[in-house]
Every structure is written in structure tokens, then in C-alpha cells.
Amino acid sequence: MSTDTSTPTPPFLGAHALVVGASGITGSALVEKLTAGGWEVSGLSRNPVPGSSARHVRADLRSPDSLAEALGELRPTHVFFCAWSRQDTEAENIVVNRAMVADLLAALAPGRSVRHVALVTGLKHYLGPFEAYAQGEMPDTPFHEDAERLPVQNFYYAQEDALFEAAAQQGFTWSVHRSHTVIGHAVGNAMNMGSTLAAYAAICRAEGRPFTFPGSATQWNSLVDMTDAGQLADHMVWASTTEAAADLAFNVVNGDVFRWRWMWPRLAAALDVEPAGFAGEPQPLEQQMAGAEEVWARVVAEHGLVEPDLSRVASWWHTDSDLGRDIEVVADMSRSRLLGFTGYVRTEDSFLRLFDRYRADRLIP
């Protein structure tokens, strides 16, 4: 578990956090962290988040008019941007996701209240976008924040540029947080390896088949790291309230490294299935789980689960992209450590805590 157990108290009287994407894996963890610390918190999402203690701000990030109406009277001091919208092509990703950052910050500009904006991106900064993911020449591992941008279109770069432009115009400080495969609690998230593997295991158990590693030999044998949503939340609050961390980009991972050949049987034991390792070639989940909706329906009925829509629990494509890579992926956190961030999480614990929480919520058996 994390060694940084301090509560992120507000940095000054009147500090008000706006969490953009409050219903997602990162956003929901941030809301929990900030409200526990006594911050005033507003959570922006299309729909209210059940059980959230944050004030709900309903807005469509793709509509400047909706943002202007929703945010016109809001005066946040800190903005945590944890949202993105997946499009069919990277060119569309760039247009849509850059505009979401730019339009939100433009809607807040007249209030002149914002002091810091934290933006969540990820290691596709170093690996390239989905259309050219982990192809071509990559920076050497571990990835360092000062690596040059790849010579390809990437919506993360466009989001950063929108952030930098708004900061220069409005005078706030910023931080960028490059996470790696976030492990956390959410339903209906487009990039959720934790619930995806749990659903995969439940279907394997129902069909009496082994829990086969779906990825590449490289991923099975190489070192890798991941990011717990709580660790990411701690890191974002730290950077947003630490003067020395202003106007910097950071990698943020748990601090441990592992190999999937070590982790896989441990996850299988926690999910009560028989593990099977790399099978000589990748076994993508999108292929393995084609037509699995009927099996999931039986699992839901048998165990009284609350989410019958398998697509809201499992994102096969995203887990396939992570586990199918043919390069080692490890991020360096020296920049954060040297500035005083001490958070550390053991990734196995992240998975096990998440599985327990999903069971308690009756999302998995």
C-alpha cells in the first residue's frame, strides 16, 4: 500500500477543486481524496456520480455553450482534468480532445479564479497514439519526462499545447501527469484493465476454461509498471500544491516493477481461476471473448450482479493493446522523487483491493 498516507488538506482557505471527468477511474479517486481532506469539490460529468460527496456540475465537454453555462458562476482555484473522448481516428482525437481542454479553460477564464491546472495524460506520450501504438522508434526505457515528442500526431501533445496556451494567457501554473495503465474503480470506463481481467476470469470460470494470458511474449517476460488511481490522485494534489512542482510534466507510476509471468498466477488465485501463461502466440481478448455476452448474462443471473452490460465492465481492446506490446514499458519517477513525492503502492495490492471492492459492489462474482 501507499507509504504516503497524509491527507491532502487544502493549501489555503477557500481552495476549491474542480474535477473534470469525476465519474471516471482517476476522477472518482480524486473526488474521494479531496473531499476526505476537507476541500470544496465540484465534480464535472454528464450525470451525477452515485454516492459522491462532490457538488455535481453537469456539462458536455464537447459543447462550449454547455461549458459556459455550467461554469459561468463557478470559481475553482484548482482544476484537475481527467477526461478524454475516444474518436475513430487520431486526427479526430486531436480536434475533439484539444478543444475540450481549451474550451473548459476558456469558460473559466472570466472568473480569474484558477491558480493551477493538472492534466492527466499517459505513456502514449512516449509510445505513440492508438493508430501507431508502440510502432517505430521508441525512447529507451525507462521513459523520462524530457524525452522529445515523437514525430507523429498525438492528442496528448495537443492537450498539452492547449494547456500551455491557456496558462500563458491566464497566468495559472500547470502540471502534466503521465500515468501508465491506471488501476481503479469505475464502471463504463473505456480503459479499465482491472474490471476487464475480472470479467474475463468470471467468464473463464463459467466455461471451465483456463485464464490464459492474452498478450505477447515480450509483455509476459519483460518488466512493467502500472499506476494505482489513489497514487495518481495523491500525485496530482501534491503537484498542485507544491511550488517546486509547478509548470512541470511528471511520470507517475506505483514505484514497483513486475513481470506478468509473476503477476498472472497471483491474479488468477484472487479470481479463483486456473492460470495459463503465454501460449506461444498472443491470444487477444477481443477474439477470445467474441460472443461472450450470453455467458456474462448467465454469470450475472447466477451471482446476482448489478451490471448486465458486459461492454460497461470489460474493455477488451484496451487490455489487448497493453498486454500485446512488443516492447518493455517502464517509467522513471526521479523528477517527482527529487522534489519530495514519496507515494508508493505495490501493484498486486492495487489489483486485490480493486477486486474486493468490485465484489462488494456486486459487479463481479
TrEMBL record:
User: Mind telling me what this protein is named?
Assistant: Nucleoside-diphosphate-sugar epimerase
A Pfam family name for this chain?
Epimerase
Q: Which residues form the NAD-dependent epimerase/dehydratase domain?
A: 17-237
